[in-house]
Amino acid sequence: MTDKPQAARLRVATTSLAGCFGCHMSFLDIDERLFDLVQVVEFDRSPLTDIKHCGPCDIGLIEGGVCNAENVHVLREFRRNCKTLVAVGACAINGGLPAQRNHLDLGDCLQQVYVQRDGVEDGGVPDDPELPLLLDRVHPIHEVVRVDYFIPGCPPSGEAMWKFLTDLIAGRTPRLSHPLLRFD
Amino acid sequence: MSGQFLFDGRPVPFEEGQTILQAARAAGHYIPHLCWHPDFAPHGSCKLCIVKVAGRHVSSCAMPAKDGMEVESNTPEINGERRALLQMLFVEGNHFCPSCEKSGNCQLQALAYELEMSSARFAHFYPDRPVDASHPDVLLDFNRCIFCELCVRASRDVDGKGVFALTGRGIRKHLVVNAESGRLADTDFSVDDLAANICPVGVILKKRVGFAVPIGERKYDGQPISKVAMERGE
Fold it and tell me: Which segments cross the bilayer (chain A) (predicted)?
């Protein structure tokens, strides 16, 4: 009875929108510190848990930009549920590699890939109703919802994410500077 | 007239004709800059070297030092304004560091690190700026141009060739090549020109050497630009 009651663990959700899961892989580079982390946090929706929808959370980590209608729904679900929303990696922050199509016409892109490409016969642009509609441009997530913090990098290093998360969890203002702050 | 002024509260001596930036650097104080270069006259366009003197904002690269001035430079207010200028430069062009071979050697990127810019904050323009790969030895990637005119000045004033120019106004301003065809291959531009070696960002790139120095061992990887620039006199 003399034991101090254990503080409730913070809930953390993560997802990848128009990303490559590279930021998630880099997050795993915190290696055995994951064990320290799960002492103080509990994972909600994340590729690590396979939970499909986000409940009320303290921290949401978003990898990837917004390239289709489903990304918009997922991002808004995260913003509704997460007290602190964090853009992780180049794609979430400035669109990244997927945004390199932004100065091209989307219809031309689809025609080129699914119809005109060498070796494609009887091609056609996929139109299954299950497929989310593409947006005409790829957007950084801060153009769609309010974002509290940004962790740049392609991907951010495990060290950078560890520094950021330990700052945030300890109640300090997260701060990344040289050499942890990198855009590549 | 020589004398001294206060730079962030510390006395800095100066000689007649020195600008605030020159005197501050001579005394070991770094001021962020992009369009300024020690070998060229001040250009005053990037405004990164902005400082506050007697409550007014001035470009320290162009403002002559005066006795008794009180200059504010490395303050949260001024650095916040410099960060906003960087953010505007980042959204105006296509600055996609992960695919840029200048990454780690780029002054724009290094200054963004220096000023702890974690996002570009504003809405990205994503302009369409096709590259010019026509020259056998040099690639031009206009996506990254910040209009500092260092290549324009170097080519015109030092190389004596006038290969580059800025054209258009306001948001339509852009870098062009001075040839009938607009292609770099149709000029007498050479990889040994000063203009080929002065770009602070990743517009003018030598072919076949892009990753000779690997990411992680580059100019601003070990130390921030505030240290590198002072040590190398850049």
Answer: none
